[in-house]
Predict the structure.
Amino acid sequence: MDTALWIVQILLALVFLLTGVMKLIVPREKAMERAPYCEDYSQRQLHLIGIVEILGALGLVLPAVTGILPWLTPVAAVGLALVMIGAIRTHLRREENVIGNVILLLLSLFVAFGRFFVEPL
């Protein structure tokens, strides 16, 4: 189970790190071409979401790797699950596809549950 959790943690960290960095470096107008939901948010809000995603990604891996405050790993997973709930809400309101967001939500909850109860660090 520990191996499965590590694989999911690393994959989630990569996804959220990538999406977070993109929200920070791509201007809102350019982002709207590929992600129409961006029109619902200001540049500042997109930056904030990006920072939260990057911090969540780092929180999935760094505390576990360093052994410093390892309880932050499942907390980060819960935080990313909350981000995905917000994303699902946004996409449903816009009548857009939510399958990817639901998958990320479920994987985040898997890590949170696994690291809180099944294989704590």
